[in-house]
Structure formats: C-alpha cells, structure tokens
Amino acid sequence: MVGNWKPKPADVVVRRPRRDQLRPVHIELTPPREPSAILNPPLILIYAFVALIGLGTLLLLLPFSHHGDGFAPFVDALFTATSAATVTGLVTQDTGTYWTVPGQAVIIALMFMGGLGIMTIASTLFVLAGQRISLTQRLVMRETVGTAALTDIARVTVRIVLWAVAIQVVGFLILSMRFAFIYPPWEAVWHGLFQGVSGFNNAGFVSFPQAQSLLEFRHDRIVIGTISVLILLGSLSYWVIDDVVKRRRFSKLTLNTKLVLVFTTILLIVGAIGFYLSELGNEKTFGNLSATEQVIDSAFHSVNRTAGFSTGGFGKTREETNLFFTALMFIGGASASVAGGIKVNTFALVVLAILASVQGRQRTTAFGRRVPQVQVQWALVVMSLGFVGTSVAALLLAFIETEFSFLDLLFEAVSAFGTVGFSTGITGDLSTPSHILLVVTMFIGRVVPPMAIVIALSRPDQPDAYRYTKEGVLMG
C-alpha cells in the first residue's frame, strides 16, 4: 500500500552540489549591547534624589507654601527640600511658623519618599529602568536592599513599603490621640501625622509653632516614648526586624542582624551614659529635671543620634557633649535603613578588623563566622571617605564663617553628612554659601555611602595577572 511504503536505503539518492554552485555564507555576529552609562545603578540613585529635591524646591518656592507674599527665597526652599528629602532635619526657617499647611504637606511627602527611598529606590528604579534585569544588577539590588534572594524584587519592595507604612500609621494614631488632649482635633491629627512620618524616617522635623524641637514635650512620656520607638524601628532596617521576628532566637539570627543589634545596643548605652555624665550639673540642660528624668532625657538623646530630635538643644550643652555626639552622628544607623551616617554595619566591621589585627589574626571573624575580606576593605574605604568628606566640609565652613567656633561648624557639618539634624542653633545664621555647602553635604551623605557599595559590588573581580615581590614597611 502506498501509505505503508518506506524508502529503502538504496532508494535514497543524495546529490552534492558542484563546487561552482557553492556560495559563501556570511554570518554576522552582533556583539552584546553594552549597558548604557547613563542608566548605571549609582547614577539612577543620584537622578532620583536630584529629581525629588528639585520638585520639592519648586513646590516650596510657590506662594501657597509659605506665609507672606511672593515666592519663598530660593536658598530656603532648596535647603528645606534637601533637608527633608535626605531626612536630615536642619532648617533655616522655623517649620511650624514659616511654612503653611500645604508647605508642610510637601515636607511630609519629601520625608516619606526620601526615607523610604533609601530602602527601596534601588530595587524600584532598576525594575522601572528596563524590562529585563541582569544578574549583576540583581546582585547589586540584593546587597543594596539587604535580601538574599535574586528573584521577586518587586514583591520584596512591596513588603518593605507596606511595613514602613504600617509602622508610620500606628505612630500617627498614637500621637494623634495624645495630641487630642492638647490641640484642637484637626491640629492634633496634623501634628500626629507630621511627627509620625518625621520620627520613623529619622528626619527630626517638627510642626509645632515656635517649638525648639520637642522641648515642650520633655516630660511627656507618651510622646517621647512613641517617637523613640519610631526612630529605633526606622534606624534598624526592615531586614533586621524581619529576621528577629522570623528566627526569634539570637543564635539563629544572621551575622548582619547580630552585628546591628549588638553594636546598636552598645552605641545606645554608651551614648546615654556619655550624655548623662557630660551634662551632669549643667543647669542649662538638667537644671529642673529629677534624677529619673535626667536618665530618660539622656537615653532619648542617645536614641536621637540618627534623627535629630532634641528636648533641650545642643546650643546649651557642653563642648565635650557636642564632640562626643559628633562621633555618634558620624556612625549613624544600620545599612538599608532610613538613618544616615557611615552605618553601624560599617563601624562594626572596622572595629572587628582592628580587634583581629591587634590579636594577630589574619581573618576578621564574629559569632563563629568569617567576614569576607572585600567587605572589610570597603568598610574601611567608606569610613575613610566619610571622615575626609566631613573634615573638608568643616574646614570650608570655617573659612566662610569666621565668627563661629570650629567645634560648632564641625558639629553642623557632621550633622549634615550623617543626615541627623542636630544643631547648636547656628544653621539659620549661616551665610548663603554655607547653606549651599550644607546642601551639598547632606546630599553626599545620603547618596554616596550606598552608591559606593553599589559601585564596589557591580564591578567584577580583577584577578592579579602577576604578583610583586613582598616587602614590608615601618609601622608606628
């Protein structure tokens, strides 16, 4: 049957083409497209903050944002927008009296987007920058956001956003109910919202008219306690809290969580003891406080080393207190959190590396784990860059502002770099060039540390082609 017929091997004839019938085949190999230098991850981070600050400046310039006629001064609008977007808290104008409710709403939006952005801006912008994310970009995103997974970046971002919003809503409700006993209902709700967002994002802005930060609530345990909890949660980062909730036992926590918790606790205790001892007997700060209230006030200032809220002002504290808190502001909070500074993680690795060197060990270890040498090296780099940056900013301020003491200017520079917001009260009295310099310092302090990590992690390892002869140098 025809349907069952199959050709036999002898029936198959293979005809080869003659040599004159062969034609050359041209195959063009298209080289892989190089990633656009304009859309590099560090530059995307810079673009986002520049756009946020630019939009905030434009809105604050408009007449409806401030009390009075005409447009707001450009430097005041730029300084306030930068301070809010970088969640610093330094101000040239009193927030509660100079800016109207719409202007304060702009500041709230800048604090929320700026604070939340430091945890999510890398991941969200990578997703928006293109439809396909490379493995290198996923590795950068993983280290930036602090997750161990390479997939479901969008889902991780949503979780972080929901977590941050939920905490701020709880803080808003508690503060609003407390303020309802002090202010009219609408004002209580507004102040609760403003301080709730400012507290969690470690911004340090306050909306109370003619207020010296939280001085009028110095004896209010509910307000002080709620804002302290908001600051701590924001400065620890989502991943540390998530790890603690899931694993619960300290022995099961990741090395990153252990280092953050241990060194944060040490800094809190040292900060509280240092503030208490240095201010003991100072009538300007502890004059009318009981012994218990002095301890609470010291603890509150220690918590605020990343936020900038104060119940007295560092213009009244002693010089040794300001110098001590300059170091605390420089360290800041945990990586992938809303807090600034060189980060607690960086400080922990530097301390561990020093201890390893002193003990004669070649490897940096902690809690039975070995820290990769490249992370130790970059911790030293970030700390060194931060030290150089703050020193240069302080020296430039000293050249511009000759009537202020160098310690006050150094305190201001470190507060701007660490995006803290503590001030000795000289911010509004500085000249326009100094305000511009502080704007640059706040921006660098907010963007450069995570950007440096992104650059370090996005570069492939370069193995040495050859080794030089080893030769030692004199030490000490």
Describe the model.
- The structure is a single chain.
- Strand 1 (about 365) and strand 2 (about 370) form a beta hairpin.
- The protein has helices at about 40-60, 75-85, 95-100, 100-130, 135-145, 155-180, 185-200, 220-235, 240-245, 255-280, 285, 290-305, 320-330, 345-360, 375-400, 405-415, 430-460; strands at about 365, 370.
- The protein is mainly α.
- Helix content is about 60%, strand content about 0%.
- Helix 2 (about 75-85) packs parallel to helix 17 (about 430-460), helix 10 crosses helix 12 (about 290-305) and helix 10 runs antiparallel to helix 13.
- The longest helix is centred in the N-terminal third of the chain and has 29 residues, at about 100-130.
- It has a two-stranded antiparallel sheet.
- The mean pLDDT is about 85.
- It has one domain (about 35-460).
Describe how the helices and strands are arranged.
Layout (H helix, E strand, L loop, with lengths): L40 H21 L12 H12 L9 H4 L2 H29 L5 H11 L7 H27 L5 H16 L20 H16 L1 H10 L7 H25 L3 H4 L4 H13 L15 H13 L12 H15 L6 E2 L2 E2 L2 H28 L5 H12 L14 H27 L18
Antiparallel strand pairs: 1-2
Helix pairs in contact: 1-2, 1-4, 1-17, 2-4, 2-17, 4-5, 4-6, 5-17, 6-7, 6-8, 7-8, 9-10, 10-12, 10-13, 13-16, 14-15, 15-16, 15-17, 16-17
